[in-house]
Amino acid sequence: MCGIVGYIGNREAYPIVLKGLKRLEYRGYDSAGIALINDQKVKVYKKQGKVADLEETLLGVNLHSHIAIGHTRWATHGEPSDANAHPHLSPSGKIAMIHNGIIENYLPIKKELLAKGYSFQSETDTEVLLCFIEDIQTCNQCNLEEALRIALRRIVGAYCLLLIDEENPETIIAARKGSPLVIGIGKNEHFLASDASPIIEYTKEVVYVKDYEIAIVKKDELVLKNLGNENQTPFIIQLDLDLAAIEKGGYDHFMLKEICDQPQTIHDCLRGRLDADTGQITLSGIQEYLEEIIRANRIIIIACGTSWHAGLVAEYIFEELCRIPVEVEYASEFRYRNPIIHLGDIIIAISQSGETADTIVAIEKAKEQGAIILGVVNVVGSTIARISHAGAYTHAGPEIGVASTKAFTGQLAVLMLMALKIGNAKKTIDQEKYQLLCKELSKVPDKVAEILLQEKRIKEIAIKYKSARDFLYLGRGYNFPIALEGALKLKEISYIHAEGYPAAEMKHGPIALVDEHLPIVFIATNDTFHSKIISNMQEIKARKGKIISIITDGDETASEISDDFIAMPWMNEIFAPIINVIPLQLLAYFIGTENGHDVDKPRNLAKSVTVE
Ligand code: M6R
User: Ligand 1: does its nearest atom lie under 6 Å from the Cβ of 394?
Assistant: First the structure.
């Protein structure tokens, strides 16, 4: 939530920060702003709306500066407005600050400051924190760095902060706890950002700032300190990321590009890990813990949103192939319960961003109680990747569209590999089936490519149903989580109400909704429950519901009952979810775009939910 960018060096800072904000806009887009030091004064420009709106208002303004910070906002405290947009200014007007996160105890601090006579221009927690910092500086007669350190010791919550001060125009001060911060190291210049996408154009050498660290950044010097003012050694890593991976490459939207990238991203995820001919699966990340996993009495999967749906698919697969009981938990619920965790329980934490606040706290809680944490993460070097004991990256590349698509199939591919590897090591899969499943999994990229050829047909279906008020998505077994995921995709980007349900549960309530206006999407490819789901389709047909079905190619029974259908290549039922989700992603995409929505930046959402 919220994207932050900073630059200090010899180049013009504004164009770099502006471009960076555009790259980070997926993190929040209700307002944007920048602060720079020009003519020895801190100047702030900010505006409700997207980064492009800010850019337009700044045409012709003298923005010359070699130091700047910028922010793109996802509102937490205070509605989206010019006043609530960041950066905020300190009472003296000399310090500007941007913030990603939430200061939970800002109200008592605000009361103290109001009692001292301060007033505020915005409703934000950020302005309160900045006022608090400057007040400490005034009262203690200390420098900004020391005042920040004192303030942060009183703060409860999450933050990534960047500050510039006209009294010290050669320095950006940054601090983080809970919200991400990457610093790119150039030649006589430094770049700061919430993730590496604004940085890779300039340098591949980066430092991931850790929780409770303060960075004092000059153009030619980077000093990291902890809150006790002790120097910390910056750990420089080399980014393995290409600029092309974060650009649209000719597609209208990142979401469409990311859907169409999936044959390649799934291939990248399997490459070097799965040898279908020999049945060799190499997951070096989890190898060290394989014995513990085999012995585990239980696996708990924690995640949010789409990643939680990947966890549900994994529940079915792990229980089938590894015979280990699996529980799938929303991280946000898990963290606030008093969960019962036994020493040696295995936690699998799934996250595209690796920065989801609820998932991070849930991991920490489980870790304290002795669980082994395996991370299934997309963003390399992210917090969850770092705090997990072991794990596997999904290798889907940067996902910019807010609706998760290629990251989801990457998660499924990793979890399928894990289940096969563990089942084989535990001998809960017979050898013949294991070899067959390895071969099946290796065919997924080609099958996904085949499905993508039906884009035009799916668009026609989208146009036919785009005005529906509600949708129901139904699936059974391995495909039940895909019904949930299909419904979530549609809700997110088309703003049409959609519910996912286990097909058999329909009779226990949702069937009351069915009439000739309700489209019902059945995920009904050939599997163990096929005849059962055909009966469910008949029940809907009898009540005049409109059936859109995802079926196996050649299934005449299902196609005849359906008003519209999308035919899928045959796939073993265990791996069917990874291909069955593709037409649902496209259906949601086309309904969203046909209704004129900005599918890459759906209202109210942000890509990375770094607040609880
Ligand atoms: O980065 P994470 O995978 O931890 O994010 C979890 C959810 O916020 C995310 O999947 C969200 O539901 C997506 N917008 C779904 O498309």
Answer: no
Cα angle, residue 20 at apex, residues 18 and 24 outer, rounded to 5°: 115
Helical axes 106-115 vs 125-140, angle rounded to 10°: 50
CA of 566 to the centre of ligand 1 (A): 26
- Site to probe by mutation for ligand 1, drawn from 335, 353, 399, 610 as the one with most ligand atoms within 8 Å of Cβ, is 353
| Ligand 1 center–CA 606 separation, angstroms | 9
| 541: three-class secondary structure by DSSP | helix
**Class assignment of domain 3-245?**
alpha beta
Contacts (Cβ under 8 Å, ≥6 apart) of 111: none
Q: Is 357 in the pocket of ligand 1 (CB under 6 A)?
A: no
**Which residues make Cβ contacts (< 8 Å) with residue 106, sequence separation at least 6?**
77, 125, 128, 129, 157
Instruction: Please say if the pLDDT value at position 612 is more than 80.
Output: no
Alpha helices in 262-304 (DSSP H): 262-270, 284-287, 290-295
Give start-end residues of each CATH 3.60.20.10 domain in the chain.
3-245
Residues carrying CATH 3.40.50.10490, the chain: 249-442, 453-603
For residue 377, report the distance from its CA to the centre of ligand 1, in Å. 11
Considering only CA atoms, which residue is closest to atom 14 of ligand 1? Answer: 403
The CATH number that domain 249-442 falls under is 3.40.50.10490
Highest mean pLDDT among 161-170, 242-251, 339-348 belongs to 161-170
**322-371 pLDDT tens trace:** 999 999 999 999 988 888 888 879 999 999 999 999 999 999 999 999 99
C-alpha–C-alpha distance, residues 490 and 243, integer Å: 29
Q: Which two tokens stand for residue 546?
A: 């409109």
Computed over every residue of the chain, the mean pLDDT equals: 94
Model pTM greater than 0.70?
yes
Q: Please tell me the CATH superfamily of domain 453-603, with its number.
A: Glucose-6-phosphate isomerase like protein; domain 1 (3.40.50.10490)
Q: What tens digit of pLDDT does each residue of 68-78 get?
A: 999 999 888 88
**Banded model confidence at residue 241, pLDDT cuts 50, 70, 90:** confident
